[in-house]
Amino acid sequence: xxxxxKRPRTNQSPTQxxxxxxxxxxxxxxxxxxxxxGHTQPSSGMLKLVEDYIAIRPWxxxxxxxxxxxxxxxxxxxxxxxxSAQVHKDCRNAFDIAAAKASKExxxxxxxxxxxxxxxxxxxxxxxxxxxxxFELLPKHRPAESIAIFAADKCGPGAYxxxxxxxxxxxxxxxxxxxxxxxxxxxTFVIEDMNHKVSRGAAATHRKVRLNSPEDNVAIxxxxxxxxxxxxxxxxxxxxxxxTSVAVSTDRLHNITGIYQGKDDPVMIIRNxxxxxxxxxxxxxxxxxxxxTGDARGSHTMxxxxxxxxxxxAGSYCVPLVTCLAVSVNGEGKFSxxxxxxxxxxxxxxxxxxxxKADIMRQQAPFGVGMASQEEISYTGLKILQxxxxxxxxxxxxVTRK
Length: 402
Ligand code: 13P
Ligand code: MG
Ligand code: MG
Hints:
By secondary structure, the protein is α+β, with helices and mostly antiparallel strands. The protein contains 11 helices and 15 strands.
């Protein structure tokens, strides 16, 4: 969920809550608005309409429109703060325009992630995934603003848990803990219970716990290992508690609709370098191509394959994808050019590794760990079949012959 600095800004308009001039917000909002020939990628016409709409919003300082598989991501910088109704409404409008185009083009799943909006204008709980961080621009302790923006398709928000634990809590994997005193002091993990549901019409709440690494590492691991239930909402510096490094979208579509309706396909912002782990430390764990819940019908276990931005889903059983864009932000809140991290040749080997792991997982077919946990499956049609079969079971008395 959102990571804000100093004051909670959710559901407040800019007039209710004056944002200091030197603060900037980076907002990444993603949604599946429809895709070509299955859950592959949006059409160029859809992407153009989103870009045309966002480019002229008065609040936008800078923006980039991308897609990862079938999900469109709107990446913006602005001064409206996190949870801004205006920002959320405009992004939702852009997605609605893309969904109308998808529908006109006869594409699959037009408007898949777009459910009825809330009166507040906040898109949380209405389908799109949101990651936002507000921070002071270029303070003394952070003379350059360096950011990595991740987007993943065909998986749930827990897909980032292993990478985040290793970069932000494990000194044996992330040498910054040994080499940089601000990092040695550790980080605060804000972990969200993604099973928490809010009934329709009730005030939006999130069930979260704050745990400090390194002393709470065992507790952090105990939660994050359950990738289907717990996700990292935020990670903050302990030396500069106002400074948020990580924000992840943690919405679950099945909590909104009660049925399987596409995977949650999370986006994530990581402010890196200086007081936070370096870019190389936050991307390193993606070499492991973690097994995550997702892929075909969101119901299996498959590896997370690092790929270039704007890659369609074309692998066997929708092998899950993750993209990473590295970018700097200047004193005016403008982006530099973007570096497409996983497009680099250095990642070819790990794509190969992901495909090898995917072959092994496919040998499992639906047996055992080949399929997602029973908890995840219970939002699919398999639950109907299981419930029917449950009624056919009968107790048979064991016969003992004398
Ligand atoms: P998405 O969540 O990316 O739309 O994928 C859904 C699906 O069922 C793929 O098989
Ligand atoms: Mg889709
Ligand atoms: Mg998707």
